[in-house]
Design brief:
6-stranded mixed beta sheet, 13 helices, alpha+beta
């Protein structure tokens, strides 16, 4: 096997620039199942900034130390008390900072190939580290990799400590702090999106998770051969797909040139930024809604559910499953706004549940995209406060780690979200050119949804499949007609 072109330059420990006054944080019924998962690995690709690399590394280290003072949990460690309860102790033990160099690779080598190159996995630290290991390892590592004409900033964060919402709030704040220090070098006393560390909701459980000697392991084959590709769906393509699924013209889904008010309001309802800053837009949309004529009784399928239905069909066809084989499409849902009372949109920790939707391979392939999307729509809509609490209650009766993987050869798992503000990460020299993830938690059928760089409702799907299945969807006309790249 050829040696890696990536050269390790340095490793250091970064501490919060202020001592934490946050007490121990108990892991919740949504955190504990993630102890068998790998650390989340996500990062952003940038053009090379107009400063010397030594100055950049120093700036990023300073910014990280300041950011950790607002996120003290990330600089802590896990510990288990004598009763078996697991906590984050905010002891300022610090996080790792790695600097690597890959001068022979350029931006085009990262985002140009059809399939994601294996080297991208090396842009992240803590490869294959299981979250339970946060008892004796840092809960986070930041790796900065120099390319010939760019920089990749990758974060690896313990999945029992954060979900996607909390991860990207940290990453956005890291970029915000860096930008402010770079522009003015003034002291930073406030940040735009202060995390909420309260632990007083239904997610906090008295159940004890018993772990095996040595800690839990991942539940999937970490070494199976996989292909990975980013499929880009433009705003125009998604409008066309949504119109087809809802049997309408795509213009009917636009309001002032954007997606319709129903979908915009839905996306804003749990978005702290829009809650604080989008009052005028929301008011205008609400007035527009009340002035419109009566809407058809037919349930409107969202853009994202339409896309999921399309993918479910393509993958099921490519797997060539028997018609009677039961397939599963899992979607991770944010529970912050589903609980009553609602959690703060910036609640720090995991507040997600995995919703399985089942259908036979015959139904998925013989019925249309709308039927598949409707099954997903019904399950997501039904996941209310009562359902969230039922999931918690069922877990409390049998506390266990979450079984990630494709155990029957007919499953898919959708994670992440096109609503996450991944392209808002401007460290001071411009928005990211792309978003990529490491090798963490990847198996046949693992899908991650990212916003498209062009915005306005565009979506990127990071699809991980067995090689023969990937080849199948790449030649699937129904699927590929909507793919932009």
């Amino acid at each position: 096997m050829p040696s890696s072109p990536l050269i390790f330059v340095s490793k250091s420990t970064i501490f919060p620039d202020q001592k934490s006054n946050l007490g121990d944080i108990k892991l919740s019924a949504s955190d504990l199942p993630m102890l068998s998962c790998h650390y989340i690995q996500k990062g952003c690709l940038f053009t090379r900034p107009p400063i010397a690399i030594d100055s950049l590394i120093s700036l990023l280290k300073q910014s990280l130390g300041k950011t950790l003072s607002f996120f003290p949990a990330l600089a802590g460690r896990l510990y288990t008390d004598q009763d078996g309860y697991i906590y984050i102790t905010c002891n300022d033990a610090g996080v790792e900072f790695h600097h690597s160099k890959c001068a022979s690779w350029f931006i085009r080598d990262v985002i140009g190939p059809i399939h994601v190159p294996n080297l991208v996995k090396e842009f992240f630290s803590f490869d294959k580290t299981v979250s339970y290991q946060g008892h004796y390892k840092p809960l986070m590592a930041v790796q900065v990799t120099e390319l010939g004409d760019g920089v990749f900033i990758g974060c690896s964060v313990n999945h029992a400590v954060v979900d996607g919402t909390s991860f990207w709030n940290f990453f956005n704040t890291f970029a915000e702090v860096c930008r402010k220090i770079n522009n003015s070098n003034q002291s930073i006393e406030k940040i735009a999106r202060q995390p909420d560390f309260l632990r007083d909701s239904a997610l906090i459980s008295s159940a004890i998770l018993r772990v095996p000697e040595g800690g839990p392991k991942v539940t999937f084959n970490e070494n199976e051969p996989l292909w990975e590709r980013i499929f880009t769906f433009s705003r125009e393509a998604i409008l066309e797909l949504k119109a087809k699924v809802n049997n309408k013209k795509k213009e009917e889904f636009l309001f002032n040139g954007d997606f319709n008010a129903v979908e915009i309001l839905g996306k804003q309802s749990n978005d702290k930024y829009h809650i604080d800053n989008g009052k005028n837009l929301t008011g205008i949309l609400e007035k527009w809604l009340f002035k419109t004529t009566a809407i058809s009784n037919m349930v409107e399928i969202s853009s994202f559910q339409s896309l999921c239905g399309l993918l479910w069909r393509a993958v099921t066809r490519a797997r060539k499953l028997p018609f009677s084989k039961m397939t599963t499409f899992r979607m991770a849902v944010n529970c912050r706004h589903r609980l009553n009372p609602k959690l703060d949109p910036l609640y720090f920790g995991n507040a997600i549940q995995s919703i399985p939707t089942y259908a036979s391979a015959g139904d998925v392939t013989s019925r249309d995209i709308r039927w598949c999307a409707e099954q997903l729509n019904e399950n997501v809509k039904a996941h209310d406060d009562k359902t969230v609490r039922r999931f918690i209650h069922n877990w409390e009766k049998d506390p266990r780690c979450f079984p990630l993987g494709n155990f029957d050869g007919a499953s898919m798992t959708m994670g992440s979200s096109p609503r996450f503000p991944m392209y808002d990460n401007d460290f001071g020299w411009g928005r990211p050119l792309g978003v990529r993830s490491g090798g963490a938690n990847k198996f046949d059928g693992k899908i991650s949804a990212f916003p498209g760089r062009e915005g306005n409702g565009s979506v990127d799907l990071e699809v991980v499949l067995a090689p023969e299945t990937m080849a199948g969807i790449e030649s699937d006309h129904e699927f590929m007609q909507y793919v932009t790249n």
